[in-house]
Design goal:
Elements lengths: L6 H10 L6 H7 L3 H5 L1 H13 L5 H17 L7 E2 L3 E2 L26 H15 L25 H7 L21 E9 L2 H6 L10 E9 L2 E2 L1
Antiparallel strand pairs: 1-5, 2-4, 3-4
Length: 222
């Protein structure tokens, strides 16, 4: 495969790529030229590198163990959550592959950023707990879920914080149990590509344009 790199560098990359044990490095820095130029080639390449297993299992396990002990010493309350199906975090990240997946930059394993968990938990608290509906000074039948952080009730602001003040709860990243994760390919199938790219009418004579991307599945996060 060819790369958008100087010839000597490209030769080194091609020679040592199979030994690379950081999936994130491969996705972010070393996609082949064919994959960048032709989106239809991306699925074949992604499937290939997933099957080749570019994760250092022992390093991932050791890094998880170190992370667990560190957060434990900081007083974290750990809990486990297993994926029901497929998950992708960071799909819209900046990448030449059009789609992205949040991977640890050192170990290449997937993780869920603490900021994402914090936002998810805050949204759940604001929308699902009717006691947290606003405005707080009105009867319950005249209140509704907060639509933005500035309108949150006092309790939620105390827990999650605001732009001016830190919250009482610290959210750590979620890491895959023992550093083990499983990847699988998925697709987004744009049935009306001309509608999105050229603002033409969404007619059925347009050819679908499948976009392949990586997801995480059958994985337990802590």
């Amino acid at each position: 495969m060819a790369y958008y790199l100087p010839t000597a560098t490209a030769r080194l990359i091609e020679k040592h790529m199979e030994m690379c044990r950081n999936l994130g490095l491969m996705l972010d820095k070393y996609p082949p030229r064919e994959v960048v130029q032709e989106s239809k080639e991306k699925g074949v390449w992604l499937k290939k590198i997933v099957l080749e297993d570019h994760i250092d299992a022992e390093l991932a396990r050791m890094s998880y163990s170190r992370w667990f002990k560190m957060t434990q010493e900081m007083g974290a309350r750990h809990f486990r959550a297993t994926l029901d199906w497929r998950m992708v975090v960071g799909l819209g990240g900046e990448t030449v592959l059009e789609t992205d997946l949040t991977l640890h930059h050192l170990y290449g394993i997937p993780y869920i950023p603490g900021s994402a968990l914090k936002g998810l938990t805050r949204a759940y608290a604001a929308e699902e707990d009717k006691k947290m509906y606003v405005p707080e000074n009105k009867p319950e039948d005249q209140r509704s879920p907060s639509q933005n952080v500035d309108d949150d009730p006092k309790t939620i602001k105390q827990i999650f914080g605001t732009q001016k003040e830190a919250g009482a709860v610290l959210f750590f990243d979620a890491m895959p149990l023992d550093g083990k994760a499983k990847f699988v390919l998925d697709i987004m199938n744009a049935h009306y590509p001309n509608y999105y790219s050229e603002k033409k009418a969404p007619t059925n004579d347009q050819s679908p344009n499948p976009v392949t991307f990586l997801t995480v599945t059958e994985t337990t996060f802590v």
